[in-house]
Design brief:
This protein is α+β, with helices and mostly antiparallel strands. The chain has helices at about 20-25, 55-65, 75-85, and strands at about 5-20, 30-40, 70, 90-100, 110-115. The N and C termini lie close together (about 10 Å).
Length: about 120
């Protein structure tokens, strides 16, 4: 097993148009995304961002994903995971997505998924 460390983006929250119900298709709703990425150790441990994974690209990519419209949380979660795996430095990713305004009786409903780069 290779050595790694984890980078996370916790509860990125914005408005997203997602859902299969008529009331969900009419307007955006509050939506949360949390990501944990397993990243390989750098070849050099220096205080220089060039040595490490820069999560700004994920942050900016998330903002772009929120501009689209989706039917299912599963599809959206996979899009987030694919965004993370665009970087060769990311070995695996765990994604959790959550709607917070669907049911009054709970704080949220969502999906979590894990993807690992082949051969890792």
């Amino acid at each position: 097993m290779s050595e790694c460390y984890r980078i996370f983006i916790n509860e990125f929250t914005s408005q997203l148009q997602i859902g299969i119900h008529d009331f969900e298709k009419k307007q955006k709703q509050p939506y949360k995304v949390s990501i944990s990425m397993e990243v390989g150790f750098p070849t050099s441990w220096e205080d220089d961002i060039a040595c490490y994974f820069d999560y700004d690209a994920i942050y900016e990519g998330l903002k772009l994903l929120f501009l689209d419209t989706y039917l299912t949380q599963e599809f959206f979660a996979k899009r987030v995971a694919d965004l993370c795996l665009l970087s060769e430095k990311v070995q695996s990713v765990d994604v959790r997505v959550e709607k917070s305004s669907v049911y009054q009786e709970c704080t949220g409903v969502g999906v979590s998924l894990s993807l690992r780069r082949p051969n890792n």
